[in-house]
Amino acid sequence: MKNSPTVRRDLVGFAAWRGKTVAMDVAHTHGEVELNWMVTGAATYFLAGRFQSLTPNRLALFWAGIPHQLVKAAANTEFIWLTVPLAWLLQWRITPAFTKRLLAGNLIEDPQSSPADGTQLQRWVNDLKAPAPELRQIVLLELEARVRRLALAAAPQRSRATAPSGAIERMTQFIGLHYLEAVSVTQIAAAVRLHPNYATQTFKRATGMSLWDYVLRLRVSHAQRQLLTTDAKILDIAMESGFTSASRFYAAFRHYSGNTPQDYRTRVAVRPAIFHDTIS
User: Fold this and answer.
1) Which site from 43, 60, 81, 197 is most exposed, i.e. has the minimal number of CB atoms within 10 Å?
2) 165 three-class SS
3) Which among 87, 123, 48, 96 has a CA at the least distance from the CA of 228?
4) How is residue 266 annotated by DSSP?
5) Mean pLDDT, range 79-107, rounded to an integer
6) Which strands form 15-20's sheet, in the order they lie side by side?
7) Residue 22's pLDDT is what?
8) Which CATH superfamily is domain 15-153 in?
9) What kind of fold does domain 167-268 have according to CATH?
10) Using CA atoms, how far apart are residues 86 and 32, in angstroms rounded to an integer?
11) How do residues 233-257 score in pLDDT, each as one tens digit?
């Protein structure tokens, strides 16, 4: 991942920071909701199988459990980032329509620019660096209020995504419709009329991960949503998420999330004390 050495990118828990960034080498996932504020520059994400551009000085939010990658960043592009665990945001019980859009992998961007957001985000960066639990509580309360305003302001279908046109987007559109089924790389390639080898190479070159890696990431993301939002049995979630055996599910889940499914449900889903730096 080619990011500025002055910026921490180990996105875990409740944190905020500011710095310059460049394009990432590979798509990745993590368990938090990510807020982006692009101070200067231009940037495009590969998110949920679509290429989506950010608008400078406009708050944008997405769930980072969906595979995402900053694929383009102009010189001297500067961001303010903030991450908050998905489970915390779900506990705010914001409108179901907003939550559904978030978990589906949409980039939710405020339809209007608000200069006050930049000032507020910088304050959050400073406050979360301070060793004061009360400041963390204040930031969390202010953040909840700001996300609620964003949910209210953003039109239900508002998105900067365009209709799929390139081979990558056509492949990810097909995967998005079928990743819970017994799909293969050969079927994915055939759906977009490409040779399997060419499809695999093209996808790897554009995203830094294989087609099958992308399928598995989506399946694990689906399982994470189910673990946090339902009381379904873990084995049932495994089968519903497209895995053909419990062993394959557990191996993939641990590989991509760093937790077992049970740990994720019982430890990640429980909101920790806000003065802790991370969740585990």
Assistant:
1) 197
2) coil
3) 87
4) I
5) 88
6) 15-20, 78-85, 32-40, 60-63, 108-109
7) 86
8) Regulatory protein AraC (2.60.120.280)
9) Arc Repressor Mutant, subunit A (1.10.10)
10) 5
11) 999 999 999 999 999 999 999 998 8
